[in-house]
Amino acid sequence: MRVEWDAPVTLHIYPDVIDPKASQLRRSADGAVQLLLGADVSVLVRLQNAGAPVSAHIGQVVMGVTAIELDDAVDIDDDTVLHAGSIVAADDASVQPLTRTGNDVDDTIIGQPAIAGAAGSHADVDEQTILGQPAPLADVIDDPDASADTVIGPGRSRPESRPAPSAQVSTPAAVSAPLLPPALPAIPASAHVNAGASPTASRRTRIEPTRASDASGTFAVAFPDGRTVALDRAVYVGRAPKSPRITSGVVPELVAVPSPRREVSSTHVEIQQEGRAVVVRDLGSTNGTRVRAPGAAPSLLSPGASRVVATGTLLDLGDDVVLEIVERPSALPAQGGSW
Amino acid sequence: MVSAAASTVGASTVALPDGGGQLALSWAAQTNTGLKRSGNQDSYLAAAPVFAVADGMGGHAAGDEASAAVVARLAEYISGDFASTDEIAQALRHASDDIGEIAGSHDRAGSGTTVTGIALTIQGQRPYWAVFNIGDSRVYSLLDGVLTQLTVDHSAVQAMVDAGSITAVEAESHPNRNIITRAVGFGKNPVPDLWFIPVAEGSRLLICSDGLTKEVDADLIRLLLSEAIDADDAAGLLLEAALAAGGRDNVTTVVVEVVRSDEAADADATLPRFD
Questions:
Q1: pLDDT the model gives residue B109
Q2: Considering the domain boundaries, does residue A244 fall inside one?
Q3: What are the recorded GO MF terms, alphabetically (chain B) (predicted)?
Q4: How far apart are CA A283 and CA A286, in angstroms?
Q5: Which domain holds residue A61?
Q6: What is the ipTM of this complex?
Q7: Are the beta carbons of B36 and B243 closer than 8 angstroms?
Q8: Set of chain B residues whose Cβ sits within 8 Å of the Cβ of A122
Q9: Mean pLDDT along residues B30-37
């Protein structure tokens, strides 16, 4: 595979110790282009004002690069030429070794995971903390932007990768924008809700990142003390409710209810609207949640279980705490902060 | 925060809304370069209603400046008795912009910082800690002798633990344990995690950089945090423990004690229901 730039770039070549067949291109904040290279991949670099391409190696910083050719021994079409846009860097073409600042001055550097491998010693805890995303982990890292930097990754990238829209690489906002469309399916910036070490620990719920629109924000929860909370955000009810992990989206509403007999759990139930449905989820409460749909006999929602409920459904958490799912009053303002 | 060691102590009492009584905090913070590093790239903020630790990354002064920038923005945006999540999010976004400029001025590949902390907020008329995190600095709470890690690291090893490919114990010695997967800086919008935790009277909260947690295990953290006579004592004991264990990285400890909360969260066990 071949990648070309309209203007010369400075290329930093780092090892990818995790995947020998991996190659990734990404931008660093100062405009340099970083190439992560697995041990099985070789690269030829074409320099500005120079003739034949020359071989480049891990650990080099190569200035004045106009194109690279990756021999990554995987089934990428050799005819694929990627135009990476007008990334401007130093003008002169020279090759110099990649140097690292020693412990005497600066202990913490920014780099890719591979730098730790290059250093060779993992034993000491005083190794520099670095920001990186090891290639094999890309799909388990809980980072909505995790795919944004991934540009070329054999096994993940497909030969039909297209050149990036030029706007992505020519605007200042593109400092860390991919040179190519992300190879992985983009993880939407939706909220990941993870209830941590509670009985719901294995549950991961994705809720929509934006406040439910007027069209969908049609439900609310009525509390015994007269409060009504709109379901334009998730609502957590209990004696002293905690929130789960909130990554992005609308901040949930935490509603503490009195329970002198301590029958209501500290974080007892989650109520949220998903599309046109209201879903009630018992969060592993001690006593469960009694659900009475209109015209139906009450039934127990077991600790940890969830159920879709209709308007008019009563939720009995114990200790006379009975919530009702209601149509959202039109006057009820949206309150949740965004995150 | 380039000095080798620094410390802060403080206390505050605020009125809770709607006649909810009073909330009194006391706190202490200490930071130390450690025994091996030449400079301290940690920064902290310890001033009610917000307490935070940032661990900078980046060559030359960029790491110092990145961590200092994020605590400066938190201090700037959060004022009054209680914070809002919007203020926290705004502060982090602006800090990210600041760090972009720092990186540019140093002509470095990039600089960034972790940041984690707690901010006093009101949720549903009750006091809550908004716990926020980007990176691998941590927040712990100690309540009734139980130590709980409130934040989840954004690290390569945490991702592997989550995926079930290694255990939490294996993570402590894994070669990739110094790789973090999120930071403030690097020209990206920060993506912080957030939790809301009820403010509980008698609880102690610890905010620390990985210079503590990579040297001192959770059992010793729990012991020192619970045995200390007050927040200042706790911050000092924890920092000394990290130094005694090797002090290979910058260490920062911020301890907040909830001395009084009249709207006390009911942390007792739930009882069975008989009816």
A1: 59
A2: yes
A3: protein serine/threonine phosphatase activity
A4: 9
A5: 2-176
A6: 0.84
A7: no
A8: 175-176
A9: 94
